[in-house]
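User: Okay, second chain of the day. Same drill as before: sequence in, structure tokens out.
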Amino acid sequence: MATVLQADKRFIGRRQELAALDQALDGIKVSRPRWLVVSGEPGIGKTRLLSELAERAAARHHPVFVGRGAELESDMPFAIWIDALDDHVASLGERRLEALIGERVGELARVLPSAAPAGAGDGGLQDERFHAYRAVRALLQRMAMGTPVVLILDDVHWADDASLELIAHLLRRPPPAAVLIALAFRAGQVPNSLLAALEAAGRDGLVTGVELGPLTQAEADALLGGPQPALYRQSGGNPFYLEELARHGAPAGGEDADVVGVPPAVAAALGQEITGLGDAARQLAWGGAVAGEPFDLDLAAAAAGLGEADALAAIDHLLAARVAVPTAVPRRYRFRHPLVRRAVYDGAGEAWRLQAHARAAEALAVRPGALAARAHHVEQSARVGDDAAAAVLEQAAHQAAARAPAIAARWFEAALRLLGSESGGDPFRRLGLLVPLAGALAATGRLEKALDTLVDALPLVEMADLRVRLIAACAACENLLGRHDAAHARLLAALDALEDRHGAAAAALHAELAADALYDSDFEAMRSWAARAVDTARALGDRGLEALATALLCFAEYNLGHAVEAATVCDKSAALLDALPDDQLAMRIDAAYYLGFAEYFCERYDDSIRHLRRGINVSRASGQGQFVVPMQLGLAHGLEVRGRLAEAAETADAALEAARLAGNRQLIGWALVSDAWMAAAAGDVDHARSSGEEAIALLDVLDDSVLTRATHAHLGVMWIDIGEIDRGLTSFRAVGMPDFPSIEPGRRGWIYAILARAELARGDRAAAEMYAARAEEVLEGLGLPFAEAWLLHSRAAIALAGGDAAGAAELALEGAARAAAVDAPLPAARCR
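Assistant: Same drill. Structure tokens below.
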């Protein structure tokens, strides 16, 4: 294929590609987003094609916003989005911005600094950064209300992790508006997660792809104004290389090219151009390459060590030589091509660059809101042992942790590097970096490395309570990685190592072992460990730990089918938790998680909703995200039982987005089951089927646990509910149908009731009667009206199929009454 070129502002060739631009622009006439994806090698014409898109969009009176990734600033959070939208948001002002997106302004500030004063928008939980992404989505939607909007993101292969994550989010959840988002990147240089999101959007018909190739000989001749076969061979038909060779008379070049990946002759041409500049202009060019892309004149001058007058004279020379070009913002400039910037930066020399980065960091120290930029330059220039530099990186990492955890992890690691060897320095300082580093790594799905980091932190801890918390965090990582045996062994070893078997640390480990037993569905062990934790916590007067331990004990008693005992300890746990102030609950946030789920399974739905909501709110207020997604999933199911389907679906959707950001397959699978369930309850069968199938696909790479078994069980019910009975039976077989040995009695009885309905639909009334009898036997004495309502619904259907209409009506009305007893309107309505 040919490429986009400019000769006297005219293109050479590119008919199909130009037609693709018009097609993409035509596609946004309706309120439906479109994506244009341009890919190709460096210098092939991606930027020129996007420039033509901008011109054609402007000719149609569409607002156009352009952002560009920068090779040397891939650690700047949301840089490409800030480049594209921050100036526009600043121009709106606070009132107009609030009128556009309302309460989302605070979240938008986590991406675009101009949305709020300095320091705003830095809070929040790492796994809930999707709230900020939704704020960007809302902004784009509102911007496109009057006329279609074109957003161009160039050089996406250099975008930072946070920017890429936001692009992927918008591909999965595009704004329902007339927006065209154009991306350009080098083929093979973007992460698979982005490619997967593009592929999914392409299946929905939203993506137009343009892959650029070299010029033909005829097109190269047209560009250069005559035949130049030698230049064509040397350039390989790449238009940028061709123009640079023609500009500088095609120098031969050596083998040691300055610009990696660029032909030696082209690199030599660029080097010759920079060498030919005057001293001040060359120094300012070096300073601009260090300062960033685009570069601020004052920062470039500071990096270069130039005064104001010399800098002003030098920028004129750079503009005249077209090394740099102006932008729409005063005193801000770009290099004419990213490869020119790379050549300038490499030509400055290592020693000069180290000093320039240090000068840039010093200049940024007095600028408000420049902490991230300062950290970038500090990382490039600081020496090992520089405590002040490590402190800057640590502060920047904490500031970035909630919105860009991958970049935060990089800066935490850089700060650790500056502190020196593990044997030197302050161990408490190292510990203060290792623990948040582990959290940032876990938030980006790098659980293996997070676990290694926590293990590195353990030898630095002397306090028993803190050590137990780190060991519990290690076990949590191992459980999320599916290494349940390793987690169990780690907890047991920690318990064996304790000298005081009756202290708070021992009780906390007993509670962790009880929670750990849940993964293996070993409810006897769970009850034993939880009971020990209750006794010790009560003796110590630790109300928070007692609340957690009694919640775990309730969970165990319920799963063992001990209804009376479960109800008793559930009441105790609820009373303890309700009496805890928020600051004390924050120390035992898992108490709200386990109690909320225990209450859900015990069919105390309003209590479950109340405690899970409180747990989520306290987690957010205290910056603890480890239980938020599971609590959101429990909350969604409680809301669904209560008939609040829209709220339940929204909660499940938020949990799924957070789980995807966390990158853990086990958590994503759990969230997908809830998402499928809510969609089925709302009648969206296609959505339910899609999420269910994705959840099942994830099971192939997960070890067997209570979560994988729950996936099969709940999806089995869902498949049957949407009429796909054979699929439902396949799911049930995966968890031991017909005996279901790993499913607790309450859910087992409910599943039997569903199976009775399925067999009736298949025409096997005898099998339906058998499963109904099994359900009745299992549910006897458990006091679970919700499950009993579904059993009565199935018995009514069986009676009706046998011609006993009166008996069916009586059973159905009794089922409706049981459902109403726990305020469950959906089964009540089905019974009626």
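Residues 1-9, 252-258 have pLDDT under 50 and may be disordered.

User: Thanks, on to the next one.
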